[in-house]
Design a protein that fits this description.
The chain has about 170 residues and is mainly β. Helix content is about 5%, strand content about 30%. The protein is built from two helices and 21 strands. The strands form five sheets. Strands 3-6-10-14-17-19 form a six-stranded parallel β-sheet, with no helix packed on it. It has a five-stranded parallel β-sheet with strand order 2-5-9-13-16, with no helix packed on it. Strand 20 (about 150) and strand 21 (about 150-155) form a beta hairpin. It starts with 5 loop residues before the first strand and ends with a helix.
Length: about 170
């Protein structure tokens, strides 16, 4: 239980396995690395503040993952993360959730139970979500703010791709 802890420097949880429930709620974290940590029990990051870059790339969440009310000030990397169960990303009042100055990356994340994944009241204006492994149409996107181009909502990949976007890769996104 790391609840209400403040990590002053960089903490490296890479290669760590959390066999029980992992509580990081209300934590203040700076430049943390959870790549590729394994969370066997519930992972609770609710109300955590990530003041630096955070990397969850290739992490495994075997039980519920709760990021409700968390705030990511800089880049958050969830690429190739594995969500086996429920995951909640929910913005609370006055919280922008994902950084608007840095990218958040969910590229090729694996959602084993996509109907149990919820993004609520968050901004995907700088969020990469293209996916060749999971059906994103089953994920719950509620009150999500998407990038807009020519008065149409688009995914961020269409903005950052130099040249023509890889529509074969993006096809599952839509």
């Amino acid at each position: 239980d790391f609840g209400r802890a403040e990590f002053m420097g960089k903490a490296d949880f890479g290669q760590a396995t959390f066999y029980g429930d992992a509580y990081f709620w209300y934590d203040v974290l700076n430049n943390e690395r959870f790549e590729p940590a394994k969370f066997a029990g519930e992972a609770d990051f609710s109300e955590a503040m990530f003041k630096g870059r955070v990397c969850f790339s290739k992490a495994e969440f075997l039980d519920n993952a709760d990021f409700s009310g968390a705030k990511f000030i800089y880049k958050a990397n969830f690429s190739q993360v594995n969500f086996e169960s429920e995951a909640t990303f929910w913005r609370t009042e006055g919280n922008s959730f994902f950084s608007l100055q840095d990218e958040t990356d969910f590229t090729d994340a694996v959602y084993r139970a996509p109907e149990k994944i919820r993004f609520m009241s968050v901004s995907f204006e700088k969020c990469l979500i293209a996916n060749k492994f999971s059906d994103l149409s089953k994920i719950g996107f509620y009150d999500v703010k998407w990038p807009v181009r020519n008065k149409k909502r688009i995914v961020y990949e269409e903005i950052v791709t130099k040249g023509k976007p890889d529509y074969e890769h993006l096809k599952k996104t839509y």
